[in-house]
Amino acid sequence: MFERVAPAAGGRLLDSIWFRLPEVSAKARRLRVELPEATAIELPFEDGTIRGSTWGDGPTVYLVHGWGGWGLQLASFVPPLLDAGFRVVTFDAPSHGDSEPGREGPKRATLLEMRDAFRAVVAAYGPAYGVVAHSMGATAVALALRDGFSARRMVFLATATDFRDGLAQYEAYFGFGPRTREQFLRRFTRRFGSLDSFAVAPLIDGLAEERELPQLLVFHDRSDRETSAEGSAKVVDVWPGARLELTDDLGHNRILRDPAVVTGATAFLSTDRAVGEPGKVVQETMHG
After folding, report:
1. Whole domain around residue 179: which residue ranges?
2. Which of 11, 148, 162, 220 could disulfide-link 184, Cβ–Cβ 3.0 to 4.6 Å?
3. Which residues pair with 64 in a beta bridge?
4. Cα(269)–Cα(262) distance, rounded to whole angstroms?
């Protein structure tokens, strides 16, 4: 109906859906890992508060959740990273988890807001040695790289690499057509610039010509229905020295709890250092 008689209204409806966060049940958010006692984070951010947790001492590794996620969704990484001698910081982006609503209001967010929240947490809690980021959280970290953020090593999990794919999925699911798409893209471009400018592979390709990038390890499941493993492969192709590890039958979220993924990520982050032995190099245990 919108496509035929009111594409502008359809564009507004698609805009409202695009920035709306999915509902997450209490059952889904239950903690599946036993964690040591944490120090709570409460960081003023714009008109609200970002909440999270921190553990340990040593070089800092930030855990960055994706769209509709929460910091402790990556809890499986906390114990092994602590055992490896890292300090670990998690946080919930605005309107996510236990954090207060952000600039888009309750139950809504944007990728740029997630990027800005990540940068604010790093500014408050210290430089990053490493990052483990999931889905759109990895995209937010990539955008932060463009804005000057740096780290020694990073792990991306199920990276969201091109939002044109997501738009196509929305169109198919809700039955929007090209006229509605055009109206939505006009609204989006006025606020944020071209949707194409958020594609990760071209972004990284440009950055790689300007400066040295962190070492990167990417995990992506072949059966992931939310983000494309082919997209991660394109990012690895243009990221100097990056490596892609493909998994099977883990989907988009179970990859966060897979023991082999957690072990591989921890080993990768630990490669350049040994706890208590400055200067010693730890050999990688993953196979390319």
Report:
1. 1-30+164-195
2. 11
3. 133
4. 11
| CA pair distance 73, 236, nearest whole angstrom | 25
pLDDT tens-digit profile of 129-145? 999 999 999 999 999 99
In a domain, 131, yes or no: yes
37 within a domain of the structure (yes/no): no
pLDDT, averaged across the chain: 90
Alpha-carbon distance 149 to 151, whole Å?
7
Residues 265 and 215 placed together within one structural domain of the fold: yes
Give the separation between CA 185 and CA 197, rounded to whole angstroms. 12
User: Strands across the sheet with 39-45, in order?
Assistant: 39-45, 48-55, 87-91, 60-64, 130-134, 153-157, 215-221, 243-247
* pLDDT single digits (tens) 141-173: 999 999 999 999 999 999 999 888 778 877 777
* Amino acid letter, 257: R
pTM: 0.90
Distance between CA atoms of residues 52 and 74, nearest Å:
12
Unique residue bearing structure tokens 């910081």 = 89
pLDDT by residue (tens digit) across 181-212? 888 899 989 999 998 999 999 999 999 999 99
Q: How far apart are CA 192 and CA 19, in angstroms?
A: 13
CATH (domain of 121): 3.40.50.1820
Other beta carbons within 10 angstroms of residue 217's beta carbon come to 25
Residue with tokens 């995990």: 219
In the block, tokens 């989907």 appear at: 251
Are 175 and 205 members of one domain?
A: no
Query: Can you give the pLDDT at residue 285?
Result: 32
Token pair for 209: 């010509």
How many other β-carbons are positioned within 10 Å of the β-carbon of residue 177? 13
Give the chain's domain count. 2
